[in-house]
Request: fold
Amino acid sequence: MVGPVPKAGILEIDPYVPGESGGPDAIKLSANENPLGPSPAAVAAYHAGEGTLARYPDGSARALRSAIASAYGLHPDRIVCGAGSDELLNLIAHAYLGPGDEAIHTAHGFLVYRIATLANGARPVVAPESELHCDVDAILERVTPRTRVVFLANPNNPTGTYIPVSEVRRLRAGLPEGVLLVLDAAYAEYVERNDYEAGIELVATTPDTVMTRTFSKIHGLASLRLGWAYCPPGVADVLNRIRGPFNISAAAIAAGIAAIGDREHVARSLRSNAEAMATLVSGLDALGIRSTPSVGNFLLAHFDPAGGRTAAAADAHLRADGIYVRRVAGYGLPDALRITVGLAAENAALLASLARFARAAPGDRS
Reply:
């Protein structure tokens, strides 16, 4: 028997593999979640909607868009909300990519860019990076008349690196008019650098730039799947035509409004991340494990394959101790592990486990 044949490109997709959790007692440092969890106000707002579960949510998410607009000084009509920024990235690809088109992403960029491109029959074009940083010239060199979209994660996952706003502007200026530049700023809230800008300025001043954001990271609402995009009016109109009419739940809307209004929780999360990041970096350095400087809430730790000290061996050792981090071989980084910044006790357990790994002979669990 012969089954239905999918569209061209779909069978080229390697299914996305999320960070693993382990059992209930495991330490999960694999998914870049906020270890402090969500704002208590967001939790309360989530529970407040329990009596209206039989009702459809507001399909336009008007109250949430207004709250986002107020927080960032934006026009609410140019905000589109989605079930995580993943849905928005896929909607963008669905709207602007098709057979014969090309979309560019960097060598170690978010895997969803390739998935969304192939799912719509287009060809993903990979631009090499320079020392794990986006190389603007490498992107521009790969632009052809078939280029329709450029996806740029800034900061980038899994490397934790970023490029300054001057380089983002140079990229935009170098792209032909009509090529959509998608600035994926999922980790923007964590960046404390004077030369960084998430993308609001470029979206406000150009007709072909979009910025995507998420509530999954610093706001701690990963389970609710909530994201938003700031778009030129024409792009917002297009995305609203193709998104599901009730693509985000009432619970997500309510929790999102409360989360974005709780600035103290965001500030507390930033302080916690900065302090724990410094501890992790110094702890890894002391063990001779190099890490890429990161502006996010995670680190890319590099392992030396010589003598059996591979990333795969380190990952197996950590799992045996009930600690789960992220393998990133699928991102072209087989000798690295991505480690989410956790709570103090979790970070201490991670470093203690890696210390035992560094001392042990290959294959020795003593």
User: Anything to note?
Assistant: The two ends are 54 Å apart (CA to CA). Residues 263-286 form the longest helix (24 residues). DSSP finds twelve helices and 13 strands in the chain.
